[in-house]
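Async update (no meeting this week)

Hi team, since we skipped the sync, here's where things stand on the single-chain job. The sequence we agreed to prioritize is pasted below, unchanged from the tracker. I ran it this morning and attached the output directly underneath so nobody has to dig for it. Comments welcome in thread, and please keep replies under the output.
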Amino acid sequence: MAKGMSWIKTNVKMTMDESDATVADLITDGCNMGTKSLNRYLNQYRGADHASRELCGRLISIEEKLCRDMKSYL
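Output:
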């Protein structure tokens, strides 16, 4: 269901406006949702091993950097 809704949102936005700003906006939304989910998992699974928590932290950093990099296109 979520995949279908995401596909519809992306295609509707891109049909209305195919600019770089629209693409950057969609990427930024995805990064924010990813960061939110990863932080929730970090809090939910506090007993996870160190390597897993470290990997999750690196993924959060990557998502946040991509979001910052997209700001120049918004």
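Quick observations from my side:
The helical segments are 2-16, 20-44, 50-70.
The CA atoms of residues 51 and 74 lie 35 Å apart.
Reply here if anything looks off.
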